[in-house]
UniProtKB/TrEMBL annotation:
Gene3D superfamilies from the UniProt entry: NAD(P)-binding Rossmann-like Domain
Family: Belongs to the short-chain dehydrogenases/reductases (SDR) family.
Domain of life, source organism: Eukaryota
Pfam families recorded: adh_short
Organism: Triangularia verruculosa
The UniProt record lists the keyword Oxidoreductase: yes
Taxon lineage: Eukaryota, Fungi, Dikarya, Ascomycota, Pezizomycotina
Protein name from the UniProt record: NAD(P)-binding protein
Keyword Acetylation: no
Molecular-function annotations in GO: oxidoreductase activity
Amino acid sequence: MTTTPFSLPPSPVWFITGCSSGIGRSLAHLISTVHPTHRLVATARNLSSLSYLPQSENILPLPLDVSSNISITAAITTTLSHFGSIDILINNAGYLLFGDTESSLTPAGNALAHEQLETNFWGPASLTLHALKQMRKNNSNGGVILNVTSMGGRLTAPGGAYYHASKFALEGFTDALSKEIRPEWNVKLGIIEPGGVKTAFVAGVRRLEDCEGYESADMPRRVLEGFMEDEEKQQLWSQPGKLAEEIVRVVLEVEEKGLAMRTVLGPDAWGLLRTVLGRQMEELEQGKERAVRVGKEGQLEEMVKAGFI
């Protein structure tokens, strides 16, 4: 089948989650001011947090709880009824659950762990599928879906086990789903991996209870917590407005340059990921002999043919 070249419509519809603060707010502000002919669906759990947006027929503020399938379906239905399509989805909403992971063995801790996955993984996954369904049926015009994870979608730090699990899951979901999509649908999926960003992210951290045995000040989680709460260190983090500009640039350049599966934003993210991936490659090479001796000739080639890469 012949594939129609990808192009965004002149007034594309942006659907952005987590617009109450941080990157999401910066994205919504940028679209509404620099690209006023574009149409914007700005969502947040509390509608009052979107009062900064100008009044415009091209802007639709909507309440959205990404952990609720009912709320997700309502927001998608309202958007399609109002604007007729979703051309760009940016899944940005999320938060960090931080603390001693062992404390999630308690009923309260276990509930917090499940809530983390509901918000950071299941919600974005559901929104991705809703958008994909609409985009692939949109006369081959397709669309762009960007899932904002974190450098924490490919590296880890102490105290954030469930946060990292949610981000690793969303990255794997996005990558695998991209391989299910036929080229002629013109649906482009990608991942945005920010590093540290100077937002209200730290203030919005939810906490697991302290766990017996982890009280010492030199425990890795407590050392990292001190860094995260150091306002002087936070001044070194990237500005959300700069990230928003790059994310918009990524979207608007898809027609000309295509879309990378992963876009890293921030010198900290780039440097840390380079180090982590380098170590992983070293481990992979060191384990080659062990890996090869348990398999059969031709095993790799058949896996490649089956679509594993």
